[in-house]
UniProtKB/TrEMBL annotation:
The keyword Endoplasmic reticulum does not apply. Homodimer. This is Phosphate-specific transport system accessory protein PhoU. It comes from Thermaerobacter marianensis (strain ATCC 700841 / DSM 12885 / JCM 10246 / 7p75a). It is found in: Cytoplasm. Plays a role in the regulation of phosphate uptake. GO terms for biological process: intracellular phosphate ion homeostasis; negative regulation of phosphate metabolic process; phosphate ion transport. SUPFAM superfamilies: PhoU-like. Keywords: Coiled coil, Cytoplasm, Phosphate transport, Transport.
Length: 218
């Protein structure tokens, strides 16, 4: 009976990990929407979501440690629990970056944007997809899906470099835009870092399935 409960708790952890990932995806989406729409309510919602993700991280961590201490899992189960602890740390950090993007929205207030936001929303879409695929690969043990995420991380890097060049040109031509351009650069940087954390998920998947650590972030 105890073993049935143990496996039920492993299944519950996987489901809660997916729920945590869903919260992170929503936080990323809302953070960038709040900036594009100048919507303070959406920005505040991101701050609330980040608090919820923090609580989920602590809860999942506690349950993982309890399973290790009380059930003494072997081999594959132990590796999965250990990787779950790694994944929730990356998810929590992604939520922190979404939080920081929302704070940019609140800092800018009603100040008109110096340029239409095109590449930043594209970055957000790619980042959300990476989070979703990373968690799917983790739960399903899909190494090929994990490795395919590298191309999307490269896409994020390309978009960020494009944003950097464009904003640098604007700042040179219009020095009065430096403050806001710097804030927008920070947003791009936060999204690029989310991609790095999502790539970490892919690395954990590969290790979970193969037992081999493979660096995907060059």
């Amino acid at each position: 009976m105890a073993r049935v409960s143990y496996h039920a708790e492993l299944d519950a952890l996987r489901q809660d990990l997916l729920r945590m990932g869903t919260q992170v995806e929503e936080a990323i989406r809302l953070a960038v929407e709040s900036l594009k729409e100048r919507n303070a309510d959406k920005a505040q919602r991101v701050l609330t979501l980040e608090d919820e993700v923090d609580r989920m991280e602590l809860d999942i961590e506690r349950r993982c440690l309890n399973l290790i201490a009380l059930q003494q899992p072997m081999a594959g189960d132990l590796r999965q629990i250990g990787m779950t602890l790694k994944v929730i740390t990356d998810l929590e950090r992604m939520a922190d970056h979404a939080h920081d993007i929302a704070k940019v929205t609140l800092r800018l207030g009603d100040e008109p944007l110096i340029k239409p936001l095109v590449d930043i929303p594209r970055m957000a879409e790619v980042a959300e997809k990476m989070v979703r695929d990373g968690l799917k690969a983790f739960v399903e043990g899909d190494v090929e899906l994990a490795r395919a995420m590298v191309a999307r991380d490269d896409e994020l890097d390309h978009l960020f470099n494009q944003i950097f060049r464009e904003l640098l040109m604007i700042m040179r031509e219009k020095p009065g835009t430096v403050d806001q351009a710097t804030q927008l650069l920070m947003v791009g940087s936060h999204l690029e870092r989310i991609g790095d954390h999502a790539t970490n998920l892919a690395e954990w998947v590969i290790y979970l399935v193969t037992g081999v650590r493979q660096e995907l972030n060059d």
